[in-house]
Design brief:
By secondary structure, the protein is mainly alpha-helical. Helices cover about 50% and strands about 10% of the residues. It has helices spanning about 35-50, 55, 65-80, 85-105, 115-125, 130-135, and strands at about 10-15, 20-25, 25-35.
């Protein structure tokens, strides 16, 4: 059974040294003697700094942001994440161009799955995709 992603790091015993340890992002951090109050304190401090799934989410403020602002944040992330893959840059640009044309000024809270389908259909209709069948995932699966 695969591991659950984004789990909280465990308080562990390093048997050879008798030290408490915690593994964060693949790095073991020794906390002091195992089962001692000082090691529990250090453990709680480190785990408090460890990013949780909730802290990784984009938190929208009371001021509504528009689709164009959210897309700009994604493009910023993608430039760093896909820095070696030029093909991916092209795919992202092809996908966001119609999204910005159709819904750039729309608040993100008003963007719905129906609007995403409209943007996808716009990509297919205008021929921006070389293979329209790849983008068209909403085929009837039932009888």
């Amino acid at each position: 059974m695969p591991r659950r992603p984004n789990r909280v790091p465990s308080y562990l015993l390093h048997k050879p040294s008798g030290q408490a340890r915690v593994r964060i992002n693949g790095v073991d951090v020794h906390l002091g003697s195992y089962n001692r109050p000082e090691s529990f304190t250090k453990y709680r401090e480190l785990v408090a700094k460890y990013p949780t799934p909730e802290s990784r989410r984009i938190v929208l403020s009371d001021d509504a942001i528009c689709v164009a602002e959210l897309v700009a944040k994604y493009v910023e992330f993608a430039a760093e994440y896909y820095h070696r893959n030029r093909d991916e840059h092209y795919r992202i640009k092809s996908a966001i161009t119609p999204l910005l044309e159709l819904y750039g000024d729309l608040p993100v809270s008003d963007f719905s799955p129906k609007k995403l389908k409209t943007a996808r259909q716009h990509i297919i209709d205008t021929g921006l995709s070389r293979n329209a069948n790849r983008l068209s995932r909403s085929r009837d699966c039932g009888p």
